[in-house]
Amino acid sequence: MRRLTTTRRTTAAASTVLALALSATACGGSPGPASGQELSGQTVTVAGVWTGSEQKNFRKVLDAFTKETGAKTVFVPTGDNVSTFVGSKIEGGNAPDVAMVPQVGVLQQFAKEGWLEPLSEKTAKTAGANLATVWKSYGTVDKTYYGLYFKAAHKSTVWYSPSAFEQAGVAEPKSYTDMLKAGRTLADSGLPAFSVAGEDGWTLTDWFENIYLSQAGPEKYDQLAAHTLPWTDASVVKALTTLGEVFKDKQLVAGGSAGALRTDFPGSIEQVFGPEPKAGMVYEGDFVGGMAKDDFGKKLGEDAKFFPFPGVDSGKAPVVSGGDAAVVLKDGKNKKAAQRLLEFMATPEAASVWAGAGGFLSPNKDVDLASYADDTTRSTAKSLVDAGDSVRFDMSDQAPAAFGGTKGAGEWKLLQDFLRDPSDPKATAAKLEAAAAKAYKS
Amino acid sequence: MAALTTSTAAANPRRRAMRQRRNIAVVFVLPALLLLGALVVYPVLFSAGRSLFDASGDRFVGGDNYSEIFSDPATLKAIRNSTIWVVVAPVLLTGLGLVLAVLTEKVRWATAFKLVLFLPMAVSFLAAGIIFRLAYEEDPNRGVLNAVAVGVHDAFDDRSAYPTARARQGQGLTGDPGGAYRTADAVSPGKSVSLGFVGVAPDKMPSGARPAHAASLAAPAADEVKGVVYLDFTPGGGGKPGKVDPVEKGLPGMSVEAVRDGKVAAKATTAADGSFNFPGLDAGSYTVRLPAENFAAPYQGISWLGPALVTPAIIGAYLWIWTGFSMVLIAAGLAAIPRDALEAARMDGANEWQIFRKITVPLLAPVLTVVFVTLVINVMKVFDLVWIIAPGPVQEEANVLATRMWLVSFGGGNNQGLGSALSVLLLLLVVPAMIFNVRRFRRSGA
Fold it and tell me: Which of A188, A401, A405, B357 is most exposed by smallest CB count within 10 Å?
């Protein structure tokens, strides 16, 4: 008797779920009116790596979408590894509708696995009008447009403490040589020039990428990123030599290379903007500003300033960038609403929602610069948009994770070894090539 | 005929009962067998099969993954480290446990003592890893071990006053390899010298330092060498290198020597304005030298988490956790030793060391073996401690087989073929220890 009741209850519950699912599908099938409630009753699930304030601010963008379309939105945090998360969700038949993908390599992997739905005409058209071609091509795999770049990072900014510069009597340098000279003057004043976060390998790859992009030019940069140019190329050795000039100079690196290898990324910001400054400058992306502000109470533009990473030799100043692309998953349950969300995210209105909240740069050139919260962010945003097609995506993010994204292995590890002993750029280049050859093969 | 019928009738119920018993046994064993099959046998077979395929799982590569294990330097390092772990950790743990168990037997607060030693077992590996990561931190202001090391070192050896100072380049001072500075040109009595240094932050300057300009102009007598040691940097810029600008301060407390023919002819210490004076010198040519003690970098402690020491350091953390375990097991075995054997030995005049070696240890041998083998198996699969304690740059130097396997298959390598091969290797290494343990159980059961 008891058993019978349970069975009956389960059946009833199952049929309710089924009915709900059916009605949801029915809704999805019929095109709604173009009013503010065209998608009411539908739910779009968005997966992304964001946590904390980034997640909160992204939810504001999703809320704006809800207001416009009536669709409900759910944000699912993926943890650090988007690719593992999405892969397991697809296998479990529970795929999110939209995923925010932080690396070009992962986007390509998803596309090759056949997990992605091409973006709608409308998204492609809007994005084509307000994104530089380079952003569109980073979202394209085999001529199909899959990824809409929504949030960008500017990884060519050198942050410094204005009081340290004043103390040493130096001004913002305009060339790489000037930067090293300013650094040595800083060291003379008693403060080592750079805090280098050597414990985190990715900051070292960013150093290398800026120098390489400026010194060898965008064509070679693209070839190296695709590994059609070997790492043993003379241009790589030259860039490593240039980087080694900084790494081997005890006056330029706070704590020398041993000290740098013990410094993680938050630590490197503390060394410049913390209560006991141990260095005058720290190179990393625009997000350094946010951390200096939030963690150490610095006022951007007053106690914490940046200058663009200067051009090396006769090269143009590099603009290395990173970013998160929105993709629509084939296995999602609400593909239509998902496409609609991306159409919304392609508009400048969506970007300006987050821009006002801070900690965000949009690659969208139609976003009104006035919508950014402060002058410093505004100028990084301007520099990113002005760079147009010369922007290059972070090379290590384009590489297979085994080479460009694994703690203690590949490029991270080899550049850390190079920081420990920068005496032989040629040998380092050879080791990089060996590691790259292995990673790109599989 | 009748007899035959009776015998079949008698055999039948017996056989039926036997069959029934077997059926019941199967019913009872089945769930366990199914679980074992699904959770142990199937994954093992799957991994063994998977290890013969490449990263994507589509192409059969035979033994390639296995040959890669023994050619890839990073994996070889992991094998080396695993060997160190297996050789060192169980021996140390069993030894420590034995010594502590024997000693605690003799102290008054034995239970409290054992409790404290056993407490780390209650701490998760993750938490213990974080604790030791902090303790091993190299910066003496953060890591407690280096704070102690630096404290002890500095108690015997004073810190230098100007560890960051260095001579302004190309302004008459040359550096010795040992860290000392000397004037490039010879100085004769009746001359004065200005020795410019840079690299001292304003807040690191002694509070009594005064501008050196006036002192640099003082005229020396015919038989003396005068001079100033000063900070050749004008805050805010604008100073001239090699020149004592009006605001530039002297570096007080610097020891200065006048050297002639390799021998120290006079010594002085600079005053608040950085001035020094060597009066009553014989005529001749001297070199003014600033010994290396002025600039010695402060002692930074031991690089626990550097490439060389990282594995021993992690083994140290492992000992902290597991010593209590081996001590408690061995103490239990110790309690079961027949007292009369010990008494008899004592009566015969054996000393404590002889009793320990000739009686306690042999009687404890079975327990010691169990502890040792259990620890060998446990050490093989150590993962979390290595993962948490080793910082990124030395991850590769600290890797053991288990962390390497995870890294290769999921942590970025995404080569589950190679990862499976590593897991099969790990299994093969654990199997002998398992067989040994199972045999022991069977023997003690029989």
Answer: B357
Q: Mark whether A93 and A123 lie in a shared domain.
A: yes
Contact B236 A167 (CB under 8 A): yes
- Interface confidence, given as ipTM, is 0.72
The pLDDT-based confidence of B155 (bands split at 50, 70, 90) is confident
The pLDDT value recorded for residue B8 is 57
CATH of the domain at A436: 3.40.190.10
**Is A29 inside any structural domain?**
no
CATH code for the domain in which residue B404 is found: 1.10.3720.10
- Under the banding of pLDDT at 50, 70 and 90, the label for residue A92 is confident
Q: Tell me which chain A residues have a C-beta less than 8 angstroms from the C-beta of B235.
A: 167, 169, 189
Q: What is the pLDDT of residue A282?
A: 95
pLDDT over threshold 70, residue B257: yes
Q: Are residues A140 and A197 in the same domain?
A: no
Position A8 scores a pLDDT of: 38
User: Which of B139, B164, B235 minimises the CB distance to A167?
Assistant: B235
Q: Based on the domain organization, do A179 and A243 belong to the same domain?
A: yes
Tens-digit pLDDT profile for residues B373-407: 989 989 998 999 999 999 878 888 899 999 999 88
Residue B387 in contact with partner chain A when CB distance is under 8 A: no
User: Which amino acid is residue A21, in one-letter code?
Assistant: A
Domain end among B236, B263, B294: B294
Backbone angles phi, psi at A411, to 5 degrees: -65, -40
Where does the pLDDT of residue B413 fall: very low under 50, low under 70, confident under 90, or very high at 90 and above?
Answer: low
Cα–Cα distances (Å) from A334 to A42, A64, A122, B184, B265, in that order, read 8, 18, 17, 79, 90
Cβ-based contacts under 8 A for chains A and B: 92
What's the average model confidence in pLDDT over A394-417?
86
In a domain, A6, yes or no: no
**Cβ contact, residue pair A408, B399, below 8 Å:** yes
Query: How many domains does chain B divide into?
Result: 2
Q: A241 and A382: one domain?
A: no
Q: Which of B199, B234, B392 sits opposite A408 (nearest CB)?
A: B392
Split into its structural domains, chain A has a count of 2
Amino acid A262: pLDDT = 87
Report the number of secondary-structure helices (H) and strands (E) in chain B: 16, 9
Contact state of B415 with A168 under an 8 Å Cβ cutoff: no
Question: How far is the alpha carbon of A408 from chain B, nearest alpha carbon, in Å?
Answer: 5
Contact list in B for residue A412 (CB cut-off 8 A) is 392
Is residue B28 in a domain? no
Q: What band does B36 get if pLDDT is binned at 50, 70 and 90?
A: very high
In a domain? residue A91? yes
**Shared domain check, B213 and B131:** no
Tokens 């990393």 map to which residue?
A284
Q: How far is CA B384 from CA A78, A405, B78, B91, B125, in A?
A: 22, 21, 15, 21, 6
Task: Give the domain range for residue B270.
Answer: 166-294
* Pair A230, A281 in one domain: yes
CB contact under 8 A, B201 and A189: yes
Helix, strand, coil percentages (3-state) for chain A, rounded to 5, are: 55, 15, 30
Same domain, yes or no, for A133 and A216? no
CB spacing of A190 vs B198 below 8 angstroms: yes
Domain identity same for A436 and A403: yes
Question: Which range marks the domain in which residue A63 is found?
Answer: 39-154+321-390
pTM here is 0.79
Burial of B338 (0-12, 13-18, 19+ CB in 10 A): exposed
- What residues have CB less than 8 Å from A327, skipping those under 6 apart? A98, A99, A101, A107, A110, A116, A117, A146, A147, A148
Question: Looking at the structure, do residues A349 and A408 belong to the same domain, yes or no?
Answer: no
Q: Indicate whether A30 belongs to any domain.
A: no
- What's the mean per-residue pLDDT of chain A? 87
- CB contact set of A290 (below 8 Å; sequence gap of 6+): A358, A359
Contact: B414, A442; criterion CB under 8 Å: yes
CA–CA dist A313, A244 (Å, integer): 15
> pLDDT band for position A36 (50/70/90)?
low
Residue pLDDT, tens place only, A145-192:
999 999 999 999 999 999 999 989 999 999 999 999 999 999 999 899
Q: Is residue B15 part of a domain?
A: no
